[in-house]
Write a structure and sequence with these properties.
Two copies of one chain form a homodimer. By secondary structure, chain A is mostly helical. Helices cover 63% and strands 5% of the residues of chain A. A three-stranded mixed β-sheet of chain A has the order 3-5-4, with helices on both faces. Chain A starts with 5 loop residues before the first helix and ends with a helix. The A-B interface holds A 52, 55-56, 58-59, 62-63, 66, 70-79, 81-82, 85-86, 89, 264-265, 267-273, 285-288, 290, 326 and B 52, 55-56, 58-59, 62-63, 66, 70-79, 81-82, 85-86, 89, 264-265, 267-273, 285-288, 290, 326.
Chain lengths: 545, 545
């Protein structure tokens, strides 16, 4: 990897002395390489356009954050107009033909190869996004946006009425539109199948064939662990998690957790904040990254793990390479890599015995001794209860990926015309019985439980499981480099872990596609084994198998 | 006034049947008038552009609100980029030559006179704004923006060091740039003097000659009342205002005040909210109008009156004619009329005996009987203490306008080259001695107390005093139409007053310039007498003269 900082090129370029001469010098690894100033001019223009899009998009994120957290109810009437206008302006910025012209001018320039790795990646990322956004016909984009809104409404109604037939016709139309888009994107992106073109939006270069292979191995491993956990006579007492903790106290717990992981929400240099929403989320960019959580008086652990989960996302967004801010490479790598960071902090750290060795006394102190009678191992087992369930968002570490695998297999077959929308409930229910051994009573707790399909988000689900797999693989590598990380954790020191993640994941931004990043950081291809080893080791101790 | 709703024209125009024929019918007062469909098309295009600008500007307001209330400190690094980009895009939208073309096409169209009053006003307002924004040379706009930032920094430093010489050179440069702009705007707007062109930005069509006449009369009246108050043996005991009230309780008081004036922040249809900032302000548009306040534990009255003041602004913004939303006429009339609404609620209502007759028991209840020993008349006198002071923002009702008159006279003479920047401190201190009888010890409590000049806001100050004058004149009219309004207020009923203000001020939006609005609503020209009568009557009772 060439370690040149693009900033130096850019700065030297500002010097008037250099502007007058046709070629400027770009420092690379101590040597000098000639970069055409004409090419650099075009490159800088492209980066300027890209910067505007990135900043503009961060404004849209703030409008959405405010909508979820602070906006008075009637504000939605103005907000929908604001969001519509912002999307319209953003779309114009993204599909500006000048961007197409600059990309072509740069890529066909005889000196193109003199650009360094980061510059080339920037051009590649802008091109990819530009192609995705410009190759879909306007008619299709507009129709899809409309149908997404209609399907979303039908989903809400159908879910409330436990009646799939309300959702079905609108979902059918949406799937048809998505198939049409996938066919077009398949050609642009040169993916093996149309569905792969959708996956590529969230997990670049990943294919359904690769995922099928990975998920099959994962499934076998998970089912084996699940059976051992379920059949073990040693089961946790989860009543500890239902002790009533006042919400004001839970807010203090959140602050303590944020402090622990190094997500600053209180100091004069804070770049974060925690607010409250129905569904927790993370949003922001570098200097201003905000998370939300939800407090339940009789489920204190819910907000503990959602703060750790969203905090994991936030650390990623905050610790991208600061020199790459406003550049395409100064963005997260993929949905899966993002999820690896949240699951790492939530599960690998937050549900570990060592974390609770440190945090239980803190928790007890903050709650005015509400946990003084609680045994450490009992608590650790309780927060790691393994139990097959019907609802993905409530699933534990062992069963979670099985929920995802079911969704992936269904999406894959749907887009390969092997299963129809009408057959979805039946296929869903069968798979839940096969993989998780649970009986779905109605489609609201079944095929209609998630918003994703109603929102047109096909190809997104695999990222959740891939994130878990990545987190296990990153853990294996980290354990070699920081053998005593658990000891540090038990002493309340999270710093080494945080720095390791920043160095090995956050700071790479979007320089590589996810599979490449994993190979570069861990030294091997994506490998399910590490995540399964982690689970086996952990749950065999907890459940005594 | 033609009472046609533009909405009807617009809707009928959508019908395909009408689009094919060259002229469509616009319903006016039950009859039909021919409006060229070509003209209507151009008009609709202009309104579409104007709507985009209005919505886009509301996004900028949200960015600014968030910056003052919620943004984590490091977020400023991203926010400044966002605000820079938004200003740049907004400037392009406003100065889009297509707007100039549409204006000309509409105004020169042979059927122009067939547009109704509201449509013509919309075109007029777009044209006025377009001219203001396009006639100033780019160089001057950029230089001024830079100098404002520099002057602002110098002002902060100078104020902290109590040293006008730090601020002086930067203010001199800024005044020169503002004079240049004023000269250009004077020609565009055809105002008598350059300074009048600046006043016109905030108080359309108002001139320094008119203001001088009005303020001279006001000054005489105020000085007379002030002398009587100060020399009266009957003086209030203000220690009541210094009782410590926990901030959590003060927040509840704010909610109660918001509920009382009909500013909804709690219901499922709420269109407002109250947050906390160093300096209270109001921002928003129709459905989403937010106010802020500041709580001091040992000065509970401060937030009471700031919530009433900002609440008055908010009621105006929320109760503009809903049919005019996103149109230029669907905006407030002027800075002065806006201030008349905030001062009406803060002072005429909020500092009245009748209001406290109703609210004192509420206050006592909310504060757990912290005021059970307090006599109503003692409290009313305390919140109406008249005392000459050096600082404008802390001034009472009687002296407030004298602070403004001083600033106006100085600005007027500055732009007429009768006084120089170097002479400002001396002129300031002399006027404070003459009008208020106070001795300014240093320039931080003198000429550098306000941010306005450092921010380039010349011509803004008069609006504050005009707002008070308007509020008195509106009161005189309202008293004729609702003779028992004070009785209603004493019973905790604010509804009639609110409805009267909405009908007579809010709902007119920007259909008229301020002087016309006052004439239409009150039946007479701007008349200082009413405000002076109000003060005389109120303070003669309080101070017994």
């Amino acid at each position: 990897m060439v370690k040149t900082k693009f900033k130096e090129v850019s700065n030297s370029h500002k010097l008037k002395t250099y502007i007058a001469i046709p070629r400027i010098f770009s420092k690379i690894k101590g040597g000098y390489v000639m970069v055409s100033s004409e090419l650099m001019n075009e490159y800088k223009k492209l980066m300027e356009k890209s910067k505007e899009i990135i900043i503009f998009d961060s404004i849209k994120s703030l409008l959405e954050w405010d909508m979820q957290t602070k906006m008075p109810p009637r504000g939605i009437l103005l907000r929908s107009q604001q969001l519509g206008l912002v999307s319209q302006i953003e779309h114009k910025m993204i599909t500006n033909p000048e961007i197409g012209r600059l990309i072509e001018s740069i890529m066909k320039h005889p000196d193109y190869d003199s650009l360094n790795e980061q510059q080339k990646r920037n051009v590649y990322l802008v091109k990819k996004f530009y192609d995705e956004q410009t190759k879909l016909p306007e008619r299709l984009v507009v129709e899809t946006a409309k149908q997404e809104a209609i399907a979303n409404e039908a989903w809400k109604k159908g879910k409330a009425a436990k009646d799939f037939s309300v959702f079905k016709p609108e979902l059918e139309k949406l799937v048809e539109l998505k198939k049409e888009a996938a066919e077009i994107l398949m050609k642009v992106k040169e993916t093996p199948t149309p569905y792969d073109a959708l996956i590529d939006i969230f997990e670049p270069k990943m294919t359904s064939e690769m995922i099928t292979k990975i998920f099959n191995e994962l499934k076998t491993g998970l089912v084996s662990i699940l059976e051992k956990c379920v059949s073990s006579p040693k089961q946790p007492d989860v009543s500890i998690l239902k002790r009533k903790i006042p919400i004001e106290v839970q807010r203090k717990i959140s602050k303590e957790l944020a402090k622990f992981i190094g997500y600053d929400i209180e100091s004069e240099k804070a770049g974060g904040r925690i607010d409250e929403t129905e569904h927790p989320f993370t949003t922001g960019y570098y200097y201003d990254v905000r998370i939300t959580t939800h407090y339940y008086e009789d489920n204190w652990a819910s907000s503990v793990f959602s703060v750790l989960h969203e905090g994991g996302h936030a650390l990623y967004d905050q610790n991208l390479n600061p020199e790459w801010i406003y550049q395409p490479i100064g963005s997260p790598c993929s949905a899966g890599i993002h999820e690896s960071q949240s699951r790492f902090i939530e599960n690998i750290v937050g549900r570990s015995r060592e974390f609770w060795l440190y945090f239980l006394p803190k928790l007890n102190e903050l709650t005015n001794n509400a946990f003084s009678d609680v045994n450490l191992d009992a608590l650790v087992h309780a927060v790691n209860l393994v139990k097959p369930s019907k609802i993905r968002v409530e699933a534990d570490e062992v069963t979670y990926c099985l929920h995802i695998i079911i969704r992936f297999e269904i999406e894959r077959d749907l887009f390969a015309d092997k299963v129809s929308v009408a057959e979805l409930p039946q296929v869903w229910n069968e798979k839940y019985k096969d993989y998780l051994g649970v009986k779905i009573e109605n489609d609201s707790e079944g095929v209609m439980q998630d918003i994703h399909w109603a929102a047109g988000l096909f190809g997104y689900f695999p990222s959740y499981a891939l994130g878990n797999i990545y987190s296990g693989q990153l853990l294996a590598k980290m354990e070699k480099e920081i053998p005593n990380w658990k000891e540090q954790l038990a002493n309340g020191n999270f710093n080494s872990v945080k720095q390791w993640l920043t160095k090995n994941v956050h700071s790479y931004g979007n320089l590589y596609d996810p599979a490449d990043l994993i190979r570069i950081v861990t030294g091997e291809e994506i490998n399910v084994k590490h995540y399964l080893n982690y689970l086996n080791e952990k749950y065999s101790k907890l459940y005594g198998f």
